[in-house]
Amino acid sequence: MSFSSFFSRFRKPKAPEISITPSVTSSFSVVEVENKYATNQSVKDSPQTGHPKDNLNYYRYTGEALFLQTNRMRKVSADSFDVESAIDEIVSQGFDRDSVSVSPASFDSPTDGQIESMKGHGDYIPPNLSSIDASYLISRYMNDDPAPDVRLLEFATSRKIKLSYYIGSKELHDKIWKSLSQNEKFAFFLCCVSNDSSGDWCFGRWNEFLEKGKTLESDPKFMKSFKEHYNLGYFNGLEGTGRYRQRACYTIAKDNL
Questions:
Q1: Where are the alpha helices (DSSP H) in 144-256?
Q2: How would you label 116-125 residue by residue, b for 16+ Cβ within 10 Å and e otherwise?
Q3: Could you read off the pLDDT of 73-86 as tens digits, one per residue?
Q4: Beta partners for residue 86, in sequence order
């Protein structure tokens, strides 16, 4: 899959055109080093547009608004998936809605420390990288975290989970997990078992899995095994080994698919 087709699957509707500075400074060098990260399309290939939002699934909005408590204009900022949600967030902080004026803004460039950290490993540094992207990439390098499943990225975005497309598979799974309510955790586990056993996440059955989760929660055998499984610390612990498939929570969940 080419870089353009990969990222086009996640591209947000375009925000109003603004004059921005690319998120990477002119002195920021791209290190072309072939390694398992550099050859992975989801890491190596980044859009060349210079837009600060290309590698993130959300926008940063900045501007000003009237703070009601002091009746004075203040600078405001919000990270959100759309301008309406950004305004809602700003208003919730005590600002007058009618006074809010914001527009998309550039994300911060990588720090010198982040750049040196990446260069120190001899890793590939994509162009148009923000400091947020760099944090995710460094985490991937340090934790040997593989590229995530595209469908899992789409699921996270559908749930308004903010992330960089350079996130690793384990970190993505962890991020999703922490965003879920108790009952949603059971539904998501069913999705994980479904993907592991058949290659289909079955996210389209989410509401059905929420109902099935209520049954699983009332099963003592399932719950004991389920808690032990997730206490291992790697929430997507179904990959690469058969031992997880022998756990009671796995077999019971599979029987409920």
A1: 150-158, 169-179, 182-198, 206-217, 220-230, 248-255
A2: ebbeeeebbb
A3: 999 999 998 999 99
A4: none
- Kindly state the tokens that stand for 35: 């390694």
Residue (of 234, 231, 227) closest to 249 by Cα position = 227
- Distance from the Cα of residue 124 to its chain's centroid: 20
Sheet (strand 72-80) strand order: 72-80, 59-67, 101-104
Three-class HEC string of 36-96: CCCCCHHHHCCCCCCCCCCCECCEEEEEEEEECCCCEEEEEEEEECCHHHHHHHHHHCCEC
Q: What is the pLDDT of residue 150?
A: 85
Please check the confidence at residue 216 and state whether its pLDDT lies above 50. yes
Beta-bridge partners for 73: 66
Query: The pTM is what?
Result: 0.74
Q: How far is residue 102's CA from residue 76's CA, in Å, rounded to a whole number?
A: 8
Angle at 192 between CA 190 and CA 194, to 5 degrees: 70
CA dihedral 51, 55, 56, 59 (to 10 degrees): 0
Residue 81 identity: F
Buried b (16+ CB within 10 A) or exposed e, 196-222: beeeebbbebbeebbebbeebeeeeeb
Whether the predicted pLDDT of 27 surpasses 70? no
State pLDDT tens for residues 142-201. 888 888 888 888 899 899 999 988 888 889 988 999 999 989 999 999 999 999 889 899
